[in-house]
Amino acid sequence: MKRGQSGINCLLAIDKPVGLSSHDVVNHVRRALGEKRVGHAGTLDPLASGVLVVGVGQGTRLMGLLTADTKSYVARIAFGTQNATDDAEGEAVLRRDPPADVLSREFAAGVVAGLEGEQDQVPPSFSAISVGGVRAYERARKGQEVELKSRHVTILSSVLLDVVAEGPDGQPCWDCAFTVSKGTYVRSIARDLGASLGSAAHLVELRRTASGGIGLADCIALEELERRGAGALAECALDPVRKLGLPARELTVDELAYVRCGKRVTCTDAGLPEGGRVCLTFGDALVGIWEREGERLRCQINFPSGITGVAR
Hints:
19 strands; 8 helices; alpha+beta; 10-stranded mixed β-sheet
């Protein structure tokens, strides 16, 4: 086994705490499990908390395969100030009093519900989007002008949770729940919401409650993982087959030997369409994702060591 490889291959959901970057979380997981090969999907800003999907060992190869076309959040939006970063970390660039109706729950609920639907959204200047090979936030930090193209996004669900008369700095706030398409920035929602009311606004708090089919109920606290180490995995490792949302086929011992060599095996699922994918399992491990070609299955990706966590 190579240095920095623990033999652990799994999929985890971490409840990221506020104050750490997604990369910081990866480093904490590496130390907790003694495994160098750790990666994450769906970056969260340091200000945000909640669901961060992490792959360990060969589980890192699942990061690009997991379906996370939608994400859900609970957000607090403060009115009266627009910040350079569109969240609480940046300096104020615009101050404009909100309308008196901002404290009306009926008014707020109607405005928030009206956010649902398809729209074009300009990402925050302080974002990881590459502009001419340089991250937008790097240009913005140097005081350079950043012009980002709008992107087509969808707010699938937008619900008012509460109206807070005095939040940070005495500013009125709305607590909202959003479910949005991939690539949507909640910071941009907050910024644009303020502008739509003839005021200014920025994101104060953000918690991701779900990433695709992975929610807070699937998560382990980072502190608990660090305390328990690999001993926590029997309880918290995610079922990779269930989270991929693909049909599964249990292999025989003989078939496992063929699969490990990349040899094709018979397709036993008559309902699997041509080109359809299936998870091949053995015991509690995912050993490959294969696709139908005629009457056989051919290899799309193999996991020779097996990604554990498959429910039996």
